[in-house]
Amino acid sequence: MGCSLPLIRLENISKSFGRVHANRDVSLEIEEGKILALLGENGAGKSTLMSILAGQLQPDRGHIFHKGKRVVFSSTEKAIEAGIGMVYQHFKLVNALTVAENVYLGTRGGFGLNWKKIRKNVRELGLQYGIDIDPGARIDGLSMGERQQVEILKLLHRQSNILIFDEPTAVLTPREADNLFAAMKQMVARGKGIVFISHKLEEVMAIADNIAILRRGQIVDRVPAQEVTSTAELAERMVGREVLLKVDKSPVEPKQIVLKVDRLSDDRLKDVGFDLRQGEILGLVGVAGNGQKQLVETICGLRRPKGDNIRILGLEWGRFFRKPDWDKTLSYIPEDRQGLATCQGLDLLDNFLLTTRGGFTRGPWLQYDQARVKAEHLLEKFDIRPPDLTACAWQLSGGNLQKLVLAREFYRKPRLIVAEQPTQGLDISAAEDVWRLLLKARDAAGILLVTGDLSEALALSDRIGVMFDGRLVACFAADDQSKVAEIPQLMAGLSV
Amino acid sequence: MNFEITVLLLAAAVQSGTPILYATLGEILTEKSGVLNLGVEGVMILGALVGFLASKVTGSPLAGLLAAGAVGCVAAAVHGLVCLVFQGNQVVSGLALTILGTGVANYIGTGYVGQLAPGFAPYPMPVLSQLPVVGTIFFNHDPLVYLSYFIPVVLFLFFSRTHHGLNIRAVGENPAAASAAGLNVAVYRWFGIIGGGFFMGLGGAYLSLAYTHLWTTNLTAGRGWIAVALVIFAFWKPGRAVFGAYLFGGIMALQLRLQASGTQLPSSILLMLPYALTIVVLVLSSWKKGTSDEPAALGVNVEPAD
Prior knowledge:
The complex is a heterodimer. Chain A is of the alpha/beta class. Chain A has two domains: 8-228, P-loop containing nucleotide triphosphate hydrolases (Rossmann fold, 3-Layer(aba) Sandwich), CATH 3.40.50; 257-491, Rossmann fold (3-Layer(aba) Sandwich), CATH 3.40.50. Chain A has helices spanning 46-53, 76-81, 99-104, 115-128, 144-157, 174-189, 201-207, 231-239, 292-299, 317-322, 337-341, 348-356, 368-381, 398-411, 428-441, 454-460, 481-485, 487-491, and strands spanning 8-17, 20-30, 35-39, 61-66, 69-71, 84-87, 162-166, 193-198, 210-215, 218-224, 257-264, 272-277, 281-285, 310-312, 315-316, 330-333, 361-362, 365-366, 416-420, 446-450, 463-468, 471-477. In chain A, the strands form five sheets. A six-stranded mixed beta sheet of chain A has the order 6-7-8-3-9-10, with helices on both faces. In chain A, strands 16-19-20-13-21-22 form a six-stranded mixed beta sheet, with helices on both faces. In chain A, strands 2-1-4-5 form a four-stranded antiparallel beta sheet, with helices on one face. Chain A starts with 7 loop residues before the first strand and ends in a 5-residue tail after the last helix. Chain B is globular and about 60 Å long. Chain B: The chain crosses the membrane at residues 35-55, 62-87, 143-159, 190-212, 224-248, 269-287.
């Protein structure tokens, strides 16, 4: 098998959205009987790459070769014909239909359906790969793991020979994940090629034959799995460490404590504790899904903490969120700009007023004229395009939308800022703008910066915290070089 | 009420339930594909008028029936155009279709009010109509009633035993999944809309060509709306639609008989009965526990792929 042509070869695939390079000169080979792991943080361009492979997106440049022959996947049907099958994170199943019906959906040929025979076929197909599932069961009665098995059966039934799993273990219990890995091994043993997209290092180490690492749209590394000695090594390759820009970071004298988290625990978090002072940036790093999201949501009032473990600006959590002021308080810059930070169908002025309306109310009235003057000034100051308050939020590019959110939040003169992946999906110049704004805001505020990009954290932070499995495993000054060198091990959960 | 009258009443229930049955089955076919067509009333009355006119001109009730089916397809296609091509709101489009259909039919039909056209005559089934009770209730009708016995069976087999039936159900439940499986969602929705419109047109034609043989203003009298409600009562199952349609047919026949028998009840109360029952039926069927049988993507437009 060694010298045969790869099932799929990608050559110099590039794809941009506006000025953002989602993929740049990506070359990959998917081989028969091998599991290729595609490793990268959120926003590194994994999903874009796979959408191109599945025929949902067209590359701007570059070619796809199927068994050595150049092909163009102009539609999903073309990709399916070539034997490419995707197991999406969000299952594409018809909940009201049975397993067998879902598997046979879209099958051509013949008019009538003999369900007895079909169910038998589905059952036998599953058992070949160690998938034991009742073909007559309705999807809405199945667990997430079983639903995923149905997705896999669909692809096997279609005789796909290149199977792409997009973060398949995200919805699985550990036991179900083991079953999945066993099934994947069966599939490659039968000559199929598998792409396994993940950011879970242990899984990649455990299952992959080859590993490709994607960062900011580029393949930064390609290694056979047996050459990787530890998850720490993988983590280091994944997050990178070169400093992308030199920001002028003049030291600021830390002042009073603005956020105090004291032994916070819940179903995901374990004993998280730290202080954040005005004048400093605490960069919280870690592989996504290690509790950062839960921590941020708890601090920002989206999740209720179990006890009185959090003090914000000197107030207990409950008292702080009972009636928060609109200004000189907590600003949250969420990762989900489209869903949490803005309302897509409202215009920029209304979006500006979402969190700042407290400053423009007199009695029951909202003073739109004053708000318009202020907002127009901000559009100009932050160079938000189009500079038009009547534009809707959905018309803005990711970078401009993020600038709008920042402009709005900084207008509130916050004393505590929680910024979650603030530069994700932005091009480098927009990212630099955001970094400068955050550094400037540091004079008056304490900033909790949650990021999956280590170089960003290192460039901005005064202190670094590392999260693993719901714990804050380490917290140290950002100029402590010996500690910084240990970050990859800490992120991988290895004690040092 | 003695036995003989009851049997006759049940026979009348089958007859007056038949147009509702056609319309309900048509709406089930449409809704299974994920499209809500509230224009049933409008499509039915257009079918009734065109069927009447075609039969009057050609002298052949069969030509009238086919013309009614055809105009049903065309009227429903207007709904398809709005919803599938222009991504319009399905509720608004359906309501507009009802208003348009009744308006156009009553306007064109003004000159024909009270006129007769050749229609379908009762044709007692040989042998079967001689059966006691059952023969009178089910096999002593016109051919359109007999035709309506087959359609639920055909639809049931179509939905449960054929590729295309499975595909249309998937399209109505989860168009994204159907699309990912390589199905053309729009094609199946067009089929559901136009096929449904055909049956609605036949339901209308039954009123002008079999139930009566004449045209009057507002001939459908809300039967299209009853059909919309019956789809919910039937849990989108063709078999249950039969019971629902005959239940309503029974109420309609009963109130006619009661009026004729000179009861003390005001006629407006009796006329209200079928519509009051509609509300009762909707309330009862919404009490059903567990998973809903409603197609999950009902009323949701699907953007065409780029």
